[in-house]
Design the sequence.
């Protein structure tokens, strides 16, 4: 399972970084808003904070602190991955690790995370996000699902 989780994180990291290279250096040069659908735009947003721009500052030390926290989380998740017994769990952990590493690469390279997917409805815009954020969100959702279903499954067997 460790190989499967590692490959998942590598694929997520590569797809995330390739998408950001395309957006930053090609599509958004110069930065603008590209309307793709009535509810979806491609934009260029530099997130200097954590999720949804929380704790955003212009201080370079914040980027190093957020990167260090993400790196520690990745190490913990990798240790968990080593004990994974199902493909579902390995996939979930690999997605979160790959997404977190993708955002760490941005912080160290650009001093901020490149976000570019902008969904909106009735005048409200969800905070812009990227491929790494999708992987993290889906991976965490899978972990929650696995925890709920795994707990129920284990409980049934013990009854």
Sequence:
């Amino acid at each position: 399972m460790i190989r499967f989780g590692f490959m998942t994180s590598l694929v997520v990291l590569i797809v995330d970084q390739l998408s950001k290279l395309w957006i930053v250096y090609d599509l958004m040069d110069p930065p603008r808003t590209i309307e793709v659908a009535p509810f979806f735009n491609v934009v260029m947003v530099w997130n200097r904070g954590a999720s949804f721009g929380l704790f955003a500052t212009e201080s370079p030390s914040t980027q190093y602190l957020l990167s260090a926290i993400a790196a520690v989380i990745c190490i913990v998740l990798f240790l968990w991955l080593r004990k994974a017994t199902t493909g579902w769990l390995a996939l979930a952990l690999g997605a979160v690790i790959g997404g977190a590493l993708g955002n760490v690469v941005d912080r160290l390279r650009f001093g901020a995370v490149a976000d570019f997917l902008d969904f909106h409805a009735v005048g409200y815009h969800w905070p812009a996000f990227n491929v790494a954020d999708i992987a993290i969100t889906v991976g965490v959702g899978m972990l929650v699902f696995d925890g709920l279903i795994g707990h129920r499954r284990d409980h049934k067997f013990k009854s």
Summary: The two ends are 29 Å apart (CA to CA). Residues 5 and 94 are 4 Å apart (CA to CA). Helices lie at 2-27, 60-82, 87-110, 131-158.
